[in-house]
Amino acid sequence: MKTILNDIPKLRKILWADAFIGGATAVAGLALYGWWSRFLGLPDRLVLIIAAVTGLYAMMAVCLAIMKPLKPKPVQWLVLANWLWTAVSVGMLIYYFGGASVFGKVFLILQIVVVGGLAWLEGRHVERVASKV
What we know:
This protein has 133 residues and is mainly α.
């Protein structure tokens, strides 16, 4: 089996969206973690971890968005990483739900929806096809 990418222009748009959303979350979290922590009812350390991880994802998405030619394997890694972070986010929601403010609960739920949605959208552009022998 061989892995190929389909509709690369649309995939690049999704990667740019991933980079923008992750970058905005990272910058806001790192710059205002104390305020966000109080507003969301989440520990400072958690806000910083979320900001750092989303910043790393944003950097990877930018690298992929500008990659010429765009290669399937790194896109697969990002999709897998997004699914992994979605699962971790479900765990964070369960663990921190009781102490989080309403806004914190919404934030944690949105993180699951957005990151999982990006993983799904990006993953739709990765195809396994039979190799010609």
